[in-house]
Specification:
The complex is a heterodimer of chains A (122) and B (111). Chain A has 122 residues and is mostly beta strands. Chain A has strands at residues 3-7, 10-12, 18-25, 34-39, 45-51, 58-60, 68-73, 78-83, 92-101, 104-112, 116-120. In chain A, the strands form two sheets. In chain A, strands 2, 4, 5, 6, 9, 10 and 11 form a seven-stranded mixed β-sheet that branches. Chain A is globular, with a radius of gyration of 13 Å. The chains are: A mainly beta (122), B mainly beta (111).
């Protein structure tokens, strides 16, 4: 069964850091790009970051560029989101998602994790 | 990158058909055939319903269909059922550097 499982969320003070993890199983993880998508309380979905399957070029939303870093470990079938200089507006449920087309993180996402909650508050 | 525009809410009665719109620009919805639709029940992860404007993943009911005209994409749900009550999100490929943009989401109420 294809699965994604996020972890690492929690309560962090403004200006703090947190690293989210997304463990993949049931498919050839190394062949796929991946995305992180977040949803603030009561709001819509917001794409945060992603990378392509081949070559691994990365991209970030304007709201997180320079503060968040996406990376992957193919030996662990895991994608990470390192978040720093966190702000109250980063409070959200963070989902990792697998693309429909392995190489292209931006053409739709067919597998989603259950999400992990990040709360930025003093 | 501005979000795509969706109505905040729509409603319908069981058995009816409803349509949810998703309006963008020629840089996203209108310029590419890579619009996706997701269903999200409260407290749950999004589920892909439609990709590439009209394609349905295996296992998704044929009651869900997608279309596009100009800069506006649409999701139609026919034979509305109580379990269709959920939030619906559209997304599109965009020529901006991020390559992905979502709509604000639409809450569907089945009366």
């Amino acid at each position: 069964e294809v699965q994604l499982l996020e972890s690492g969320g929690g309560l962090v003070q403004p200006g703090g850091s947190l690293r989210l993890s997304c463990a993949a199983s049931g498919f050839t993880f190394s062949s796929y790009g991946m995305s992180w998508v977040r949803q603030a309380p009561g709001k819509g979905l917001e794409w945060v970051s992603g990378f392509s399957g081949s070559g691994g070029s990365t991209s970030y939303a304007d709201s997180v560029r320079g503060r968040f870093t996406i990376s992957r470990d193919n030996s662990e079938n895991t994608v990470y989101l390192q978040m720093s200089s966190l702000r109250a507006e980063d409070t959200a449920v963070y989902y990792c998602a697998r693309p429909v087309y392995a190489d292209y993180y931006y053409y739709g996402m067919d597998v989603w994790g259950l999400g992990t909650t990040v709360t930025v508050s003093s | 990158q501005s979000a795509l525009t969706q109505p905040a809410s729509v409603s319908g009665s069981p058995g009816q058909s409803i349509t949810i719109s998703c309006t963008g620009t020629s840089s996203d919805v209108g310029g590419y055939n890579h619009v996706s639709w997701y269903q999200q029940h409260p407290g749950k992860a999004p589920k892909l319903l439609i990709y590439d404007v009209t394609s349905r993943p295996s296992g998704v009911s044929s009651r869900f269909s997608g279309s596009k005209s100009g800069n506006t994409a649409s999701l139609t749900i026919s034979g509305l059922q109580a379990e269709d009550e959920a939030d619906y999100h559209c997304s599109s490929y965009t020529s901006s550097s991020t390559h992905v943009v979502f709509g604000g989401g639409t809450k569907l109420s089945v009366l």
